[in-house]
Amino acid sequence: MSEWVVNAESITKIYQMGKVEVNALCGVTVKIAPSEVIAIMGPSGSGKSTLMNILGCLDRPTSGEYLLDDESVSGLNDDQLSGIRNRKVGFVFQSFNLLPRASALANVELPLRYGGGNGHRKDRAKAALDAVGLSDRINHRPNELSGGQQQRVAIARALVNEPAIILADEPTGALDSKSGAEIMDILLKLNKDRGTTLIFVTHDPRIAGMTQRIIHLRDGLVEEE
Domain tally for the chain? Predict the structure, then answer.
């Protein structure tokens, strides 16, 4: 096993806004070990979302080197990034991002379908739903589930491919405090039981306080810890 599941060195990201260049990241270095639980925090405009998009292979850096699970992804094209993203990254978003007309089971199967091949998709999706305590809701659509249950479906979808990392962007932001606490318990249990590496992007100091380490961003740079 590699020393680092996330190894991002001197990452920059420059956006061209008309004639103006915007430096969203200005040489960020982030290293995360397998099974770590990390929070990324910072004020609006600090570069959190940009860094999340690069770590999650939704975007590529302007310069710098990024190795995800020992695989260099900095220079990949869109199709290659999509393949890496499907195999190595699970996403959990504040807004759940579930297909409204599909059952919980079908939503969780989606990453397996994109990955190609049959490979016992239903069995793996059922096992993922069972891991988040939803084995009795597999045929329910999102509108038949509570917010907390929808987020559990999203977590099951994120873990079904056994990714190298799960990126959780404000995962409790749309939930009441009780449901939010349950979601954090589920994610932290996955880390404990499976060794899943968790990266939380959050404004919430309560979530950050449950992690092992906090990476603070400001003005596109990592603040010294």
Answer: 1
What does the pLDDT read at residue 117? Answer: 53
**75 lies in a domain?**
no
| Domain range for 134 | 35-60+82-222
CB-based burial of residue 65 (10 Å sphere; 0-12 exposed, 13-18 middle, 19+ buried)? middle
d(CA 5, CA 91): 16
Helix (H) or strand (E) holding 114: helix 104-114
Name the pTM for this structure.
Answer: 0.92
CA distance 205 to 71: 32
| Single-letter amino acid, residue 196 | T
Question: CATH number, domain at 47?
Answer: 3.40.50.300
Q: What are phi and psi of 207, to 5 degrees?
A: -65, -45
* Percent over 70 (pLDDT), the chain: 96
